[in-house]
Structure formats: structure tokens, C-alpha cells
Amino acid sequence: MHSGRKIFLLWRTAAALLAAFILAFAPPAPLLAASAHPGTPAANAAAPLPAISAPPQAAAASAAAPLPGTPAAFSAPGALTPASLAQIAALRGLPARYAGKACSILGDSISTFAGTAPKGYLAYYPNKESGISTMDQMWWHYILVSSGMSLLRSCSWSGSRMSGDKEDPTGKTGCSTKRISDLSGKDKTPDVIFIMMGTNDFLSAVSLPRFQDCYGTCLDRIAARYPNASVICFTCFPVNCWASGTGQLNADGRTIDDYNDIIRQCAAARGLPVVETGGCGITVQNFKTLTVDGIHPNAQGALLAAANILQNMP
Prior knowledge:
Rossmann fold, 8% strand, alpha/beta, globular, 12 helices, single chain
């Protein structure tokens, strides 16, 4: 009897020592998942922390902000000065390509300035309402000065179209032999030729096939007459003719970009560069701020357009 009790006590003591050993060295039991309900402190403590990132608005603003000294930094009208335009040209390396070259311009009223065209050409600028009173406020003058070029002739005629009588003796028709001949100076031919025409073709609702035919004739005649000149085509500035009640559509329901597409096609067929002016900053929302009548840029509009052209010059 005493022997059996002794054996039982020894077994109980051994079991207790074994349990103590297990408790001492076993890892603590995990908390029950059911005790951590979503939204409770326990659940928040257990969940991994999300990566820290900037708010979407801040990230977007950072991505949109132009780097100091880049052309995009001058996109706002208030930031533009002739000096900043020269900086855009320098950043793009334009003086290295154009410095010392003589440029002639084939255009309409948007490019006219009294005294820069042959005798008999009609001019729109200078214009008191536009705020443009001197030649150095013209869009093309900013381009020439900033890139180191000089003006040979601005063969631009107020109200003229690219289409019309191809043998017009007055030179009013843009594709006429006379107008193209007038691009030359007395003793010099142009090194560079800007062509910015088509606005009056749009306003007059000239058919697109007719416009294409005459624009192509113009380019072919220029190539034959001035084979060594660098020819640069420009799309037309945005147009919103509120004064005439036609808005952004002409009498045929066409937009200015329908005519710009013809310019692009004609230039591409002949391997010529096109400077896009649709993003010049003049929009439906600010026509009354940046133009005289929805067509002709004012002083601020011309400066803004020049900045855009400098950013897109070939």
C-alpha cells in the first residue's frame, strides 16, 4: 500500500516538472483572430501600414510644373518678354541654324506691317485697337530676332487668299507668280520662307479641293524659283469670328482645321516642315483677350503665338 502511494507521488511530481518545462520554453500562443474586428485598435495594430505617398493633387502639380528655364516655363502671357523668347530660341538651338539668314514671309493680314511689303500691298498693322504700333511687336519679328534672322520682305497682303487667279498680275493671290516673285529683294533671294496663309480661304468658304490645288501650286512655284531656300509652312491661327456671327464655322460648315489639314498634306507630299500654331495659347475662351476680332492677334496674342512658334520651329 505504502509502495503504491510512493509510486503515484513520484509520477505526479514528474508530470508537474514536465509541464513546467514545456511552459518555460514554448512560444506564446497567438491572439485569436476573432478578437481583432475591423476598425478596432487591435486590428489597426496588426494590419501592415500603407506606403507613404504624396497626395494626388500634389503629385499632379509637381508633374505639371515646368522646369525652370525650359520653354514651357514661358507659356503664360504674363511670363513672356522679348528676352524670354530669346531664351526659348537659345534653348532650342535656333540661332545655330538660322543666324545670319534672310527671311521672306508669304502671308495675309495677320503678317502685314506697313512698309515691309512691296508697293501696293494692303496692310492691317499697325493697328491702334490691337496695341501693335511698331514692327518689333509682330509675331514674325519676335521669331526673326530671337533666332538671328533678318527680314528680307513680308509679302503679306491684308484680305488675300492662297486661292484665286494663279496669274493675278497684282500679286494679291498667294499662289500667283507675281506674289512669289515679290519674295525676292532687289539684289537677294530669301534663305528662309515662311508661309502662313489660308485664313481668308476659310473665311471665304473656298472649297477644300480648290484650296489644295492652289496651296500645292504655291509650294511648287516656290521650289522652282528658290531651290535653295528653306520653306516652312505654318498652320493658321485659331479663328472665332464672333464679329460676323459665324463663330468657328464658315459658310460651308468647315473649321479652320479642315484647311490646316490641307496645309499638312501639301507640305508632307513635298517633304516640308509644318509649324503647328493651334496650341499657340489663343483659345475659344480667351479670343476677346488675345485678339482684336477673333482673327487678328493683339500685342499680347502675338507675343504668346511667337513663344509657341519658337517651341515648334524645325
